[in-house]
Alkaline phosphatase family protein (Saccharopolyspora hirsuta), 380 residues
Amino acid sequence: MDWIVAPDGNGRALPDVLPSLLGSMGLAGFTDTLGLPECRSAAVLLVDGLGHDLLRDHAADAPFLADLLTRAPLTAGFPTTTVTSITSLGTGRCAGEHGLVGYTFAEPSGGLLHPLSWSSRPDRQSLLESWPPEQVQPTATVLERAAAAGVAVRTAVPAEFEGSGLTRAALRGAEFRGQRALGDLAAELLAALDGDGPGLCYGYHGHLDWLGHVHGPGSLPWRFQLAQLDRLVVTLADRLPPGAVLAVIADHGMVEVDPATAFDADTDPALQDGVRLLGGEVRARHVYVEPGALGDVLAAWRERIGEHGMVLTGEQAIDQGWFGPVVADSVRPRIGDVLAIMRVSGVVRSVAEPGEAALLGQHGSLTAAEQLVPLLVLGG
């Protein structure tokens, strides 16, 4: 289908960002596939929800950032959701290897793991002990590899993320520096870039994504937040130390979805028959089926969704490389037997996920607006 933008497998995706920065620093074992400037220290600032198309379409609100749109965009991967993208960035691997395959996905006891809280759905019990992050995602992170090679590695992220499941799964190996607002985020990034030896810092800002979810991408509150981010990057650019590189990226884009016109899997029998578990999110659903029900569920979902999206088996998505070139045996059970990827609208759960169902901004699918993220580079 011509509306699907598949993840890039040729060195221009989120898993390539940190290895490329380390390669541009001349660190052995890392290759710069993005063509970044040579540097002695580097930082990446991830702006949650800042899709390439959104930045291009709202250039007047962020003129400095928009002027940096001189490189081809990166692809986020699949699904285009925060937990998957940040783990792809942090590990340098696609979801088929690192295993965080969605907003929620099947866990061994028969429920769903919600990685942002590292708890089960629907009972919301912590799974930090019964299914620890280091078991779910056992591969070494890029930050661990860089630290082992003598790079001073730190993360500048919200203070409440310390010790979280996602931090342990995706970003372990770095010195944690908790942030509370734009001021200390900027100060921490600049301090990390001005060290004596090679340094690497990952910084995160999540407010643009939240305002996009609540008010819609492109809304006035969203635009005001984008303008604040533009000023943040101007501040960083004005104070960037010599020999340092700052890369501004995102984890996904966002589209507007009218909750009133979405399909509701909690009230529609056609989307319930034969389904034992429903994971993922509004724009990208993992559908886990009862034994022997695959064909019936696939047919029912295809008929119901129609031209609003694409419904295929998990095996078909794996074969098409959406989860990357490798899908580990331990990861396959986490991928839905059926996947529903939306072109327009979405599949909500009004009973099980009332908060998520009411949001105006959504992501997860493979449209250009969700898949393409900017690569903005300063310094060097």
